[in-house]
Amino acid sequence: MNRRVLLAAAAAIGVAAMPFSVLAQAYPTKPITMIVPFAAGGPTDALARVLGQRMSEALGQQIVIENVGGAGGTIGVNKAAKATPDGYTLLFTHMGTLAVNIALYKSLPYDSQKDLEPIGLGGTNPMVLVVKKDLPVKNFAEFQAYVKANQKKVQYGMAGIGAASHLGGLMLNSMMQVEVLEIPYKGTGPALNDLVSGQFDYMVDQAVNVLAQIQAGNIKALGVSTLKPLPQLPGVPTIDATLKGYEVTIWNGFFAPKGTPKEIIAKVDQALLATLADEKIRARLTELAVDVPTPQEATPDGLRALLKASIDKWVPAVKAAGVKPE
């Protein structure tokens, strides 16, 4: 065995023997993969890319987005949860995959609270009730009356089981106490295209997805899902103003596989906090109608509490709506 091989072997043994705390101090020394469990181009993916680019600068290493879609996001989340906990595989996902899917699927290959380490909240997306432009209603009260009177023919669309638009419509229909035909699509893009062309009647989707079509006059906005109106949609009231108690927002957060060293979690969180404090990033998020998290929300403890609260809210709500697990 030559001297070069011996030195390489000795170095490898030395690295392997280093405690995690020492390795964490040097982190990161190579590019980081961030799994987004949805197709490219959607709102979670768009937010991941805005935040990821700035976080790359803060960490001094590139963050590479890997889109792993399918099965309501469960495939991508499971891949991230089973990855080596060394900080080089992260997850950016929305609440549906970690809270709502518990009720939507008979069995998940991961435990949201046991298999993942929260890092911090990345942003919260408000939603908007949008209808095809020739639907004969002018406001939410007229819409609710119309749907109740025409349940057998009214159709609502959504971007697939577990998608944000599924959750928004599910909650809306349940609270209005109506049963209408549900049309699932393979993604937001196809669903929104068909709403614009009048193939179905309404959808509740994230504001970032529908703002352009609303502003172009291709669809009508009748209400927002937050308790306060959105500055990006002046004149559009809250749904809660008529349907008391309706509030649905979609949060997106950063996670790491369980067992990832606390020092690494802290470094990634510091990069996230620096990113959210950047005025250019904050302005861009506002353009996308994304609520910027507070410094407390963008921490492991803040996200951990939010995840638990979401599970406590959504699992009973989905079951009460009578949705059968897949």
Features:
326 residues, alpha/beta, D-Maltodextrin-Binding Protein, domain 2, seven-stranded mixed beta sheet, two-stranded parallel sheet, 12 helices, 19% strand
Question: Could you explain how this protein is built, in words?
Answer:
The chain is an alpha/beta fold. It folds into 2 domains: 28-124 and 250-320, Bordetella uptake gene, domain 1 (D-Maltodextrin-Binding Protein, domain 2, 3-Layer(aba) Sandwich); 126-241, D-Maltodextrin-Binding Protein, domain 2 (3-Layer(aba) Sandwich). Helices cover 44% and strands 19% of the residues. It contains 12 helices and 9 strands. The strands form 2 sheets. Strands 1, 2, 3, 4, 7, 8 and 9 form a 7-stranded mixed beta sheet that branches. α3 (43-59) packs across α10 (262-276). The radius of gyration is 22 Å and the shape is globular. 44% of the residues are buried. Mean pLDDT is 91; it is low at 1-18.
CATH hierarchy class name of the largest domain: Alpha Beta
Please provide the count of β strands: 9
Q: Would you list the SSEs in sequence order as H and E?
A: HHEHEHEHEHEHEHEHEEHHH
CATH architecture of the largest domain: 3-Layer(aba) Sandwich
* Overall form: globular
Q: Kindly name the structural category.
A: alpha/beta
Which spans of ≥5 residues are poorly predicted at pLDDT below 50? Answer: 1-18
Nearest-angstrom radius of gyration? 22 Å
Number of domains: 2
Helix content estimate: 40-55%
What is the number of helical segments per DSSP (H or I, 4+ residues)? 12
CATH superfamily of the largest domain: Bordetella uptake gene, domain 1
**How much of the residues is beta strand, in percent?**
15-25%
The biggest sheet, with number of strands, parallel, antiparallel or mixed sense and barrel status, is: 7 strands, mixed
CATH topology of the largest domain, by name, is D-Maltodextrin-Binding Protein, domain 2
Give the end-to-end Cα distance, rounded to a whole number of Å. Answer: 57 Å
Instruction: Report mean pLDDT, rounded to a whole number.
Output: 91
Assembly state of the chains shown: single chain
